[in-house]
Design goal:
- This protein is α/β, with parallel strands linked by helices.
- The protein has helices at 9-27, 46-57, 85-92, 114-127, 164-170, 190-195, 209-217, 249-286, and strands at residues 2-6, 35-39, 66-70, 72-74, 104-105, 133-137, 158-161, 184-187, 198-203, 235-240.
- Bound molecules: 2-amino-2-deoxy-6-O-phosphono-alpha-D-glucopyranose (GLP).
- 2-amino-2-deoxy-6-O-phosphono-alpha-D-glucopyranose binds at residues 40-44, 71-72, 137-139, 145-146, 166.
Length: 287
């Protein structure tokens, strides 16, 4: 697992947006081979969405051949409610970009048969060949998507009862009226996230600091479901300085040094490549 630390939520968002932009452009998606991207809601990914919107407007990136799968949705909240995740995604992201709405997948928390809705979601992900990159956020209790403490690390898309802590945390979106926060949600499972070929998680703010330390400094544990990321072969967490408040100084220094060395390696590789190209050109001009 890699941990990248940036100054604040804005620079975290810029880093992740650049990262996703590079991945999608390198993948060079086409209609028959789209880039399949998993997406979260919450306040943490908003700076990433803002930066991606700017890149798409500047034509550095396109979502024409991107298919998205959102992580979760409340059960029983009307789809057009201002706090449904469906409304959130269109308000904060999809309405501002060039993605055809038919390529957006969001769980339907009002489906007549919620179990069938969850199973079909897993099936649809499979039909697209799996998720290439899953972007996630976390709750204060370390939950990824709505995989609350105690969720099976082998879980798949299903109905989940929300933890009281999550209901309290999300009341801020419902005029601080706890009774207005839905009690249940549909969510991809921990295993659904781990199945993605790459996972990137945004963690910002001091209120996420304990969760971050539990997830990366301690063992894999179902009480902090983000920790399951330790089992993933290609996982990246991008955090701001505030979110590192509970980490050991040694941990922060370690991950910062890894980034420095990685930068050096990449610079050297680029220099060698450029030198090789120049030599090739010289040989070609002599011939
Ligand atoms: N189900 C969502 C999570 O997917 C999200 O990561 C979390 C964090 O939200 P915020 O980024 O606003 O702290 O909120 C909810 O619980």
């Amino acid at each position: 697992m890699r941990l990248i630390i940036r100054e604040d939520p804005k620079t975290v968002g810029d880093y992740i947006a650049n990262y996703i932009c590079r991945r999608i452009n390198d993948f060079a998606p086409t209609p028959s081979r789209p880039f399949v991207l998993g997406l979260p809601t919450g306040s943490s990914p908003i700076p990433t969405y803002k930066a991606l919107i700017a890149m798409i407007k500047e034509k550095k990136l396109s979502f024409q051949n991107v298919v998205t799968f959102n992580m979760d949705e409340y059960v029983g909240l009307p789809r057009d409610h201002s706090e449904s995740y469906h409304t959130f995604m269109f308000r904060e992201f999809f309405s501002h970009i060039d993605i055809p709405p038919s390529q957006v997948n969001i769980l339907d928390g009002n489906a007549e048969d919620l179990i069938a809705e969850c199973n079909n979601y897993e099936q649809r992900i499979k039909e697209f060949g799996g998720i290439e990159l899953f972007l996630g956020g976390i709750g204060e209790d370390g939950h990824i998507a709505f995989n609350e403490p105690g969720s099976s690390l082998a879980s798949r898309t299903r109905i989940k009862t929300l933890a009281y802590d999550t209901i309290l945390a999300n009341a801020r979106f419902f005029n601080n009226d706890i009774s207005a926060v839905p009690r249940m949600a549909l969510t991809v499972g921990v295993a659904t996230v781990l199945d993605a070929r790459e996972v990137v998680v945004v963690v910002t703010g001091q209120r996420k600091a304990l969760a971050l330390s539990k997830a990366i400094e301690e063992g894999v544990n179902h009480l902090w479901t983000l920790s399951a990321l330790q089992m993933h072969p290609w996982a990246l967490i991008v955090a701001d300085e505030d979110a590192t408040a509970e980490l050991h100084v040694k941990t922060v220094k370690y991950f910062k040094s890894i980034e420095r060395v990685q930068d050096e390696v990449e610079r050297t590789q680029a220099e060698l490549k450029a030198r090789g190209k120049k030599a090739e050109e010289q040989v070609a001009s002599v011939n």
